[in-house]
Amino acid sequence: MSSKSRKSSGGIDRPFAAQLLRQAKGIVAQYQVVIYEEDGEFFGRGLEMPLVMGDGKTADACMENTREALVAAVAYLIESGKTPPAPAAEQTRSVQVNIRLTAAEKEVLEQAARRSGFRGISDYVRHAALGNDG
């Protein structure tokens, strides 16, 4: 993706301002990227914005493409007057919630989490329940 971003509704069809891109890159530099390999190709997503994804033939290419997608998403949020998610390292989670599941329910949740690119149930349930659009 170039420094242009397009919305499916035909929105932005121009480059972001240089200062806006610098600001977005500074924020994204603190974001964590989750990369996994499947069938010889690498796929990545932002931990803070799990619906922003990239891919590549190598892990390095995937990382670069995923970060580029994150920069465009963050720049769009800033330009739209919205606040991008804080870096995961700054978000301290100090409260724990326990739920009881059957073994079958746990397996279903684990499979759904993996299909959605999450490593575990906790992040998957948090994302689903809190409606993080990424």
CATH architecture of the largest domain: 2-Layer Sandwich
Distance between the termini: 18 Å
Give the SSE order as H and E letters: HEEEHHH
The overall pLDDT average reads: 85
Strand order of the largest sheet: 1-2-3
Beta-strand content: 5-15%
Query: What count of helical segments does DSSP give?
Result: 4
Q: Tell me the number of strands.
A: 3
Biggest beta-sheet profile: 3 strands, antiparallel
Query: How many structurally independent domains?
Result: 2
Using the alpha-carbon principal axes, give the shape. Answer: globular
Q: From the alpha-carbon coordinates, what is the Rg to the nearest angstrom?
A: 16 Å
Give the CATH topology of the largest domain: Double Stranded RNA Binding Domain
Question: What's the CATH class label of the largest domain?
Answer: Alpha Beta
Question: Percent helix among the residues?
Answer: 40-55%
